[in-house]
Write a structure and sequence with these properties.
The protein is 81% helix and 0% strand. The protein has one domain. The longest helix is centred in the N-terminal third of the chain and has 52 residues. With 410 residues, it is mostly helical. α11 runs parallel beside α13 and α12 packs antiparallel against α13. It has 16 helices and no strands. The chain is globular, with a radius of gyration of 21 Å.
């Protein structure tokens, strides 16, 4: 459905008007998931641990809601003084996109808290329904705007945020058993390593979504449509990411549960099978995307958004290595080795900046930056994980003492 939203808006707005919306889309997905995915991860992990012990999770969810709400307020306040530069430099003067960005930050705090609550309670069908209905509502709203002849990118940006908000309301309305009373939640149970998770999450979203923003910042006055062209190529090349989400959602609670139960052999087999599947899927995706990417771009978005097969091949390769790094991220979080995980993503972000800054051709420099960043993150985390698996003793998520409640940060 995300492809439907982007395809409709691309055709409704045209390449030049679509460019600021593409930049908004990318910036929202850097800031929103970047800051609030840790909320989902930790709520899902901690709720799964409580379920295994037979404890209700309401106190934990309420504590996480307070954290997410406070973070959203801080981000919105920080955006206010930057509204003018954002509108001028990134959004082609459309101030409504700045409003949509601030609203999106608040909605994403609620969205990822809801996802963590659903996954931690084992409600994976509802989790998938939330993602699916969100996409449907976004598509319905943008089609309505296109039919009405709306040409303001900001209106399409607001429709994206509204779709997310209504999806949350529809999925959670009347659901029972998600907030079962239980023992009080300590901060250490949620996590005392949110700083590591937050830093890593922002770097993850930077490598996933920042490409169009970088293109917009580096583009010349004659390349006003470049950000939109880059985004259309990126969403096609990163199509396997959306398939991988179905596996990723239950992955962390499952890995945490296996470790808590002491089933290390099952844990190892699950990780190896998943990595093998990602590599196999990736090899097929790189070939298919390089061959069919230009044709798919013209079909979905129109002739004004085409890029070369070479561009599609590099972007697809970065998608594959990005998925490998995501698997390793879940493994390190399950071991509660937050600092190692954050180090991997931070190095990847530094590699992206360095490679992009050293390049000259607009698209290629950003594409190679994304590929180099993903490869760097995956390699660093693989090396750091080797030391963890050799020395690790099976943890328990139950905070029965100060030693067990303190996360590993080495």
């Amino acid at each position: 459905m995300q492809y439907g939203f982007l395809a409709v808006t691309a055709r409704a707005l045209g390449p030049e008007r679509y460019a600021p919306l593409a930049t908004f889309w990318s910036l929202l997905f850097v800031a929103g998931p970047g800051f609030f995915v840790p909320l989902e991860q930790e709520v899902g992990r901690a709720l799964a641990a409580r379920r295994a012990r037979g404890d209700g999770g309401r106190p934990l969810v309420l504590r996480a809601a307070a954290v997410g709400g406070a973070l959203a307020v801080c981000l919105i306040i920080a955006t206010v003084p930057a509204a003018g530069p954002l509108a001028r430099r990134l959004f082609a003067g459309d101030s409504l996109l700045v409003v949509a960005l601030m609203a999106g930050l608040a909605v994403y705090a609620l969205h990822f808290l809801s996802r963590g609550t659903l996954s931690g309670n084992g409600r994976f069908r509802l989790y998938g329904f939330l993602i699916g209905i969100e996409g449907v509502l976004r598509l319905v709203f943008c089609v309505a705007l296109a039919v009405a002849g709306v040409k303001a990118p900001g209106m399409f940006g607001l429709s994206l945020v509204l779709g997310s908000l209504l999806a949350i309301a529809l999925v959670l309305r009347g659901r029972r058993g998600l907030l079962i009373p239980g023992p009080p939640a300590r901060w250490s149970e949620l996590s005392s390593a949110l700083g590591y998770l937050l830093a890593a999450s922002v770097c993850v979203q930077l490598l996933l979504s920042v490409g169009p923003v970088a293109v917009q910042l580096l583009a010349t006055a004659t390349q006003r449509a470049a950000a939109g062209q880059f985004l259309t190529a990126r969403v096609i090349a990163f199509m396997p990411i959306f398939l991988f989400q179905a596996v990723q959602a239950p992955l962390l609670p499952k890995l945490s549960g296996l470790l808590a139960a002491g089933r290390r052999d099952d844990f190892r087999r699950m990780v190896l099978r998943l990595l093998a599947g990602v590599v196999l899927l990736g090899a097929c995706a790189v070939t298919a995307t390089a061959l069919a990417g230009p044709w798919a771009s013209r079909l979905l978005f129109g002739s004004g958004y085409s890029v070369t097969s070479f561009d599609f091949g590099i972007l697809s390769a970065s998608c594959v290595t990005f998925m490998v790094a995501q698997v390793l991220t879940s493994v390190l979080i399950a071991f509660r080795c937050y600092a190692r995980m954050a180090t991997g993503w931070l190095i990847g972000a530094v590699v992206f900046v360095g490679v992009t800054a050293a390049g000259t051709q607009l698209f290629v420099r950003v594409e190679l930056g994304l590929l180099g960043g993903s490869v760097g993150s995956a390699l660093v985390m693989a090396c750091l994980l080797g030391g963890v698996t050799r020395r690790h003793t099976t943890p328990t998520d139950a905070p029965t003492s100060e030693a067990t409640s303190r996360p590993r940060t080495a």
